Amino acid sequence: MEVIESVKQAYPTASLGQLKQWAEEYGFANVHSFRRHMQKQGIKRTVEITRTTDYALSPKATWEEHLAAIRGMDRLTAIHQRVPTEITITYDTNKPICLVFSADWQAGQFGVDYDAFETDMNAIETEPGVFVDVGGDITQNIIQASKMNSAHNQTPIPVQLGLAYLTIKKLRDKINTLKTGNHDYWTTMLTGEDWLGETAQRLNVIYTKHGARINLRVGKQEYPYMSRHVGRYNSTFNLTHSNKQEQRLNYPWARFTVFEHLHVADVEQYRYGDRECAAFRTGTYAVYDDFAQQNGFYGAHICNPAVILFPDRDKLVAFKDMHDAIIYLRAVRN
Ligand SMILES: [Fe+2]
What is the arithmetic mean of pLDDT over 216-238? Predict the structure, then answer.
């Protein structure tokens, strides 16, 4: 259809609404086909639409700026994360001392023997010359959603933490070191806050987190040892295999090693590198353990092993049961 002259003249600057109206009047399918038709006639639109914006991409930070910022954040994160991996603790004494290894209390889990726990904690608190490394998993702390099935069988977590806090407070003059365990650490992984680490700081207790080398000085003697919640190279049949392999591969300087977590205690005293050494695996107070029942983990028992360390000569004596160690300690101290 021939477009009339007045439309041709108005077309270059007409509004979009006008174009739509003309397209309809002249029987075009849409504005685009009308515009194509006019273009073929050599009639062009002269309306220029310009758009302005203040949108702009952020300026690029340099590699050096990235590194400086991430290094700064790393330094801050370390304040909340890091503990020394090697420390020295000195006992200025001329009498032998007894160091007890007590871990996996699992407080709050159903099936914990609180009577035995009470007896042992009181003995550690009151017996002269006895000190303790409190190991990991002192609370059941089922806080992860994936493990909630076990949460139905535990006392409320605040009560567990209350008992943990008060026990640490009760024993704080006797605590050599305090460690976390996988149960305690679930909170840290979930929230970023290491409750046990904060508690240790508040109560002025040495916190070695997952484990550390401890250079233990007793009188004139030094007994460096390694204590971790979890050890590697485990054997179900030969429980101290883990300790000996760890010593051979990672801690050849250790006079004794301590590993926790598996709830079956064992003790072995042996020669390594022409020195008397010892291996310790700790027990638990969780004598009925639903998780263990579910998975067929048998053999858990109440047991806090201990070592007697002499201050005037290179001599250590390992005991499987802390109460036997205390009987011996009384004899050699008095
Ligand atoms: Fe554990």
Answer: 97
